[in-house]
Design goal:
Layout (H helix, E strand, L loop, with lengths): L1 E4 L3 E3 L5 E8 L7 E7 L5 E8 L5 E3 L7 E6 L4 E6 L8 E9 L2 E4 L3 E5 L2
Parallel strand pairs: 2-11
Antiparallel strand pairs: 1-3, 3-8, 4-5, 4-9, 5-6, 7-8, 9-10, 9-11
Length: about 120
């Protein structure tokens, strides 16, 4: 199982950003993909999850209205989009999946929000 994420992004405040998580090594549609982030010096924060089969989503309250997950079964990829960026959104964003009881993580995508 591999989760490979897209590269680092630099954005200005109020902009939006997309990051991708490409899965391989398992049946993509059978497992949820979750997104977390970790800001500098802070703990991991759960952002939400997406059902890779039907695209159903669940978002953490603090991100509702600003975050969107999209699953593309043809490419086994899940995207996260975050809009109205603030400097506090600067963090490493991670995707993860639990496959057959084992957790797998992407390598992380650094998103920096700075004017």
């Amino acid at each position: 199982v591999h989760l490979v994420q897209s590269g680092a992004e630099l954005r200005k405040p109020a902009a939006s950003v997309k990051a991708a998580c490409k899965a391989s090594g398992y049946t993509f549609t059978r497992y949820y993909i979750e997104w977390m982030r970790q800001a500098p010096g802070q703990g991991l924060v759960w952002m939400g999850r997406i059902d890779s089969e039907d695209g159903g989503t669940k978002y953490a309250q603090q991100f509702k209205g600003r975050v969107t997950f999209t699953a593309y079964t043809s490419t086994s990829t899940v995207n996260v989009e975050l809009v109205s960026l603030k400097p506090e959104d600067t963090a490493v964003y991670y995707c993860a999946a639990t496959v057959l009881g084992r957790d797998y993580w992407g390598q992380g995508t650094q998103v920096t929000v700075s004017s």
